[in-house]
Structure to design on (71 residues):
């Protein structure tokens, strides 16, 4: 997702300046690699099989009300 400056400096609902979040949907598969002793193998590409779709609205971190539309 491209970084962009927010068009507002605080939430117009609760006046928090903590920031905002963007919801996303994720589909796909994850391969969890294991050793035979039950320990996990470090895998850099573990999440390469996932596809993430970002939603178009942002929400306040504090009150979770909708703020503005992303581009």
């Amino acid at each position: 997702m491209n970084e962009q400056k927010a068009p507002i400096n605080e939430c117009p609902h609760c006046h928090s300046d903590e920031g905002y979040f963007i919801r996303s949907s994720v589909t796909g598969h994850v391969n969890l690699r294991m050793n035979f002793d039950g320990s996990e193998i470090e895998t850099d590409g573990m999440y390469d099989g996932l596809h993430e779709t970002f939603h178009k609205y942002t929400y306040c971190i504090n009150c979770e009300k909708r703020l503005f539309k992303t581009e």
Q: What stands out?
A: The mean pLDDT is 92. Strands lie at 20-28, 50-60, 66-69.
